[in-house]
């Protein structure tokens, strides 16, 4: 998990550096085709990053819910029934010892169950912290993608018009070549 967070933070930082470089170049060379291409690539990368991190966040949330259900079942096995709200409150306290209250440890299996519950609780706490960090990253990336949406629309508009101009120029060039070859055939050689 921490490797993924580190990598995600590095990617986010690199995307911000790329964005800053593009903004600096915009001030010096506003109409460069290379600059427009890099803007488009940056926007595409940013959107893909948001999609990947959204999927990662969803997976973490699903895993947290499965762990929570498993803890609840293990608590029931040890003789302690809890409601969903009580379990959430226990998890929010951040203290794995709350699971030991009232549990009598008579067998090795009960001790193992308790250790599993405490380990899962620690995992859930880590997941919650990770989800909070991801939420912050999502907010940053969402703002970045939103700010670039208008620019992408303008680039798309200009690319579409450029295609039309290229097609017209190609047709005009073909006509000019045809006229040139006709003109050569019609005029007699001059001596």
UniProtKB/TrEMBL annotation:
Domain annotation T-SNARE coiled-coil homology: ranges: 114-176
Keywords (A to Z) from UniProt: Coiled coil, Membrane, Neurotransmitter transport, Transmembrane, Transmembrane helix, Transport
* Cleaved signal peptide residues: none
Q: What is this protein called?
A: Syntaxin
List the SUPFAM superfamilies. t-snare proteins
Q: Which family does it belong to?
A: Belongs to the syntaxin family.
Cellular component GO terms held in the UniProt record: endomembrane system; plasma membrane; SNARE complex
Q: Where are the coiled-coil regions? A: 1-28
Classify the main location. membrane
Cited CDD domains: SNARE_syntaxin1 (cd15880), SynN (cd00179)
One GO MF annotation is: SNARE binding
- One Pfam family for this entry, by name? Syntaxin
BP GO terms, sorted: exocytosis; intracellular protein transport; neurotransmitter transport; vesicle docking; vesicle fusion
Report the membrane topology from the UniProt record: Single-pass type IV membrane protein
Q: Which Gene3D superfamilies match?
A: 1.20.5.110, 1.20.58.70
The record's subcellular locations are: Membrane
